[in-house]
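Case study.
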Amino acid sequence: MCKCKCKIAKALGKLLLKLLAVVLGFFAVTFTMYIFNLDMKLMAVIAPWLEKWYDHLEHNQYI
Amino acid sequence: MRDLKYLQYFEDLLQQADNALVEQAKADGKICVAYTCENVPEPLLNLDRAVSIRLSAPNTGSIDIATYYMTNLLCEPSRALLERAIEGGFNFADCVITPDGCTMMNRCVENMELLQTMGKENPNFFHEYMEIAFKNTESDIDLSVLQCTNHVLKPLAEKYGIDTSDAAIRKAVEEHNRVCRVIRAISEFRKEEKPRITGYEFHVLCLATYVCPKYLIIDKLEETLEEIRTREPDDKKWRARVLVVGSETDDSGFIKLIEEQGAYVCCDRFCFGSYPGRVPIELNDEEDALRQVCRHYIRNCHCPRMMSMDKVYGRKQYVADLAKEYRADGVIYNQVKFCDPWAYERTLGSSMLHTDYGYPVLSVDRPYNVASSVGQLRTRVQAFVESVEIKKLQGGGKA
Amino acid sequence: MKTVETIINPKKRVGEESPGKIYSDKLKVRARREWRGVKDTFYDYTRWLYLLSVLGRFIMVPRNVKGFLRYRWMMSYLFVPHGMDKFTIGLRDEALRIAHTSFNFVIADVTQAIANCFRGDRRVGNDTEYSDKCVITDENSMVTFMMGFDKDKVHTILREVPTMFASNIFHQFNVMHYLDVAQEYGISGDVCPMPEAEAGISIDDDFCVLGCCAVQNNTTCDGSLMGNGIIAKRLEREYGIPTFQLATPLRHKEPDVLEYAATEIKKAIAFVEEHTGEKWDWDRYFAAAKRVNYATKCRIAQMEINSTPYPQFFGAAFSLYNDTNYMGNSGRDPQFVKIDRKLLELAEQGYKAKRMYAKEYRHRAIIWGVQPQYVIDQLYWLLQCWGIVPLTDMLSVINTDMIVDEDTPENREQAYRDMAMLNMEMIMRNHTHGGYKVLLDDLWELCEQMNADLVMMWEHMSCKALTGMHGMFEEQGRARGIHVMWVSHDLCDPRVFTRQAIRDQVNKYMRTVFREEPLDPSLEIIPDNEAY
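After joint prediction, the assembly is written out as follows.
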């Protein structure tokens, strides 16, 4: 009974640690993205390509 | 062609707002009702002792003071009028009635009021602002009747004791129609293959009917009509016939400039022109005259600020109908610089008249006083006339 | 000239002292985000995550990807977080929370509007059943005429909001293409660029095409009214979408226009009923009217807080929330009530704590005129750089009268007049139209009421209603001892006045007239002219 409880506690502990690691990892990655504005820097790289894409689209210009 | 007997006389009257006939009307004890927009029913400003004088600023030069008050981004007519008001050029006015039509003209009159440019010695002087209709429905007519009652008839009656009865309105409409019929009759000569009147002459006569007391010019207009009936047209062959559409054209130099390039201005559809401004008002005996006048102004209004789509499409149809009636080879859409309503109307109109109705169109903006931009305008008109001419030679022209 | 007492902030700012350092002249976005101390940075970070989740959820839908690749204006979608950062420059504590609470809600609302557009768009989602229940309205539409319709059955699509209005906030160059299209087509370059860009979008065929009908109005200006003709022609003749022009009288302070305005509202409602097949529901209307009144009460309370020495509502985030709530919502969505309440609570909390958001408060300013879309962060900048407290902007000074909100036979007739009144007193036009008194006299009254010593006049150069009173502002300001600082711009065309050219007008005025030095010199010149 006691061993069984210990096993469950260990498993739960491991799960919590994993969860914590995931949360910390998520935080570390996203916070780095956030504080260094990496998301917008990436978009600034994409935007000129996208602009070219829009320039190539055919439009029915007319009133 | 031989010069019209009264052309010089009418030209002189257009040289300043406070012209000899305005002064004479004042001496006759008339009440000068100044106004700035074609959307105000004109006969209502000519009731009893009242005479309507449309404000204009001929021979405009510097507009620096008005530019200080309104910046250089407002249309030149609005600034020119304010400048003239500040200079004291409109001191003859006993009141100013203006609609909240286009924003710039409204601001112009508001500045006149705030600066107390007029009426300092006249305790009865007043400014009135009207809401005007946007659409062509019965409720718009209701609005117009209410606005005319509250902002035209009531103040005229209260301040100057003007008779605003139904009978007075009918009498004013009849006098108004007499002028319209003369202008219409003269206009008919513009349809001729060899017209007996130039577009420039017509413009001078038509403009005079807005800026002079009508009762003082009607006899000379009628005499001019008779003179034109027997006038021998020139043998001159015009290179093209054009219809001019757009913002108010107070400078007859614009029409002259077009005609100097060989294009005959066979018809006009601009603010304070003959269409629709000089279309007679038909009254019946059954309905209240005020309501009928308001209905006429709404039904016949082709101001770009009328926003319902029947009016939006209708304006282009109206231009096309006029072009057909007057056998125009092309259409010149013009706007005074910085005029918002005509900036859009010019674009859509020139596009539709070309694509939907097949007319060659020149789309151009211009200053209020054309003299400041003659070279550019001349080049644009020359090129247009040539293109119309080439199309005609190639058997094209109007599609 | 009038002066106000300078208030020194007794508390040192937590985190970064000089937000000017986060800008970069090499990048088109900021070099990094602002460090606001642990608590506020973490809060800002969580809000950033929330934004990403909103945007992420949106782009997970395949038809939204299709729409993204079809419409040029969708490029601004990429820069929403960048845009959000513009609304929080230098902010901490309650003001930061107010900015996020209000503007994140607006972003979520606009994102939903785009999703709705794409769902019904004939080129993208083509959900005809949905589209048949959509009513298109203008970006500057008061949607009071939709207050009695079930918003889950009749969808109000302000399709110009994401396409033009919001797009320009997030990406300053995004409407230039449409201005060029409009001008190539022949529209003059001197008209207001906002309706011109909207006309350009229509000419370029870059609006979503959906809806069973459209309601246009003349609520802003001549340019807006005239641009509608171009847009309606395409809607009607090419796409077969009937349009109704809701005429709104200009002289809104005159009692003799009210009946006409009310009749127009009735006609608009009948038009919507006819085309959607749905019926106007008075219970729904009066419930919405209660929410409108609640929002009005909150707005009055907000103004009172901002009249004190410790204002809590700043800048464009709050003003845009007000726009959305007053104009685009008009009491239809109960969610706004919660946000209103939360914003007021935050403000009261900040006021009680005498919270200040700059080192010094040197001047108290009323911001009059129309804000340029692409310099949406200017009011935060004023506060941080020069210690000028923007007490309110013109667009936030809207109706303070209560409307009837109990369902009785008499109130139903009055309700039409109330809707008409709200419609006539739409944001901006309630001051730019209706006679000079609402533009001039209201301003001076506000200066008195809020104890302002300075008016920052946004001189939107193409706005004829405003510039037409230029000299009068000068003369009357001088007579009252109020400084009038002119800041010219061209609303949404950064080619005419760059961001720095706009800020320089303030810099010059502050140095030459007030002879002051900036509170934060790092902000005096910001290398963001080329930034999105």
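Observations recorded in class. DSSP finds 21 helices and ten strands in chain C. The beta strands of chain C are 7-8, 134-137, 155-158, 213-217, 243-246, 360-361, 363-369, 388-393, 454-460, 483-489. We will return to this complex in the next lecture.
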